[in-house]
Design a protein that fits this description.
This protein has 105 residues and is mainly beta. Helices cover 0% and strands 54% of the residues. It has strands at 9-12, 18-21, 25-32, 35-40, 46-48, 52-56, 59-68, 74-82, 94-97, 101-104. The strands form two sheets. Strands 3, 4, 5, 6, 7, 8 and 9 form a seven-stranded antiparallel β-sheet that branches. Strands 2-1-10 form a three-stranded antiparallel β-sheet, with no helix packed on it.
C-alpha cells in the first residue's frame, strides 16, 4: 500500500486508503454512476476488474471497474481503450466517483 505525506490526497471514503493525489486531477467534469466524477492521470492502491466494451456519454470505450485494495469498494473505472479518435486522451486514465472519495491533507 502506498503512503504519501505532505501532499493533498484522495482516499477511499470507506477505509481511508489513499487512491490518488490532488496533483493528478485532469478534470472535475465527469458523470459517474452515483453523480459527479473526477478524472485522474494516475491512481494507486487499486485493483482493476474485468474489462468491458461500453457506450458512455462521450463515446464507445473499453473500460474496467477499479476497486480499493483495502476494502474492495468499487471506486469508479479506468479507460482501457477509446474507439473514437478525439477520446484517445482518456486511455489509461481513472475516473473516481466523488461520493466514494475523501479529500485529506
Amino acid at each position: 500500500m502506498v503512503e504519501i505525506t505532505g501532499h493533498p490526497v484522495y482516499s477511499c471514503k470507506n477505509c481511508r486508503n489513499i487512491v490518488a493525489l490532488r496533483d493528478d486531477i485532469i478534470s472535475k467534469d465527469f458523470v459517474a454512476k452515483s453523480g459527479k466524477g473526477y478524472m485522474f492521470a494516475r491512481g494507486m492502491n487499486m485493483a482493476i476488474g474485468a474489462k468491458e466494451d461500453k457506450q458512455l456519454i462521450s463515446g464507445y470505450f473499453s473500460i474496467a471497474p477499479i476497486f480499493c485494495t483495502k476494502c474492495d469498494e468499487e471506486m469508479g473505472w479506468t479507460y482501457i481503450k477509446a474507439y473514437d479518435a478525439p477520446q484517445k486522451y482518456k486511455e489509461g486514465k481513472y475516473v473516481f466517483e466523488t461520493v466514494k472519495l475523501l479529500k485529506e491533507y
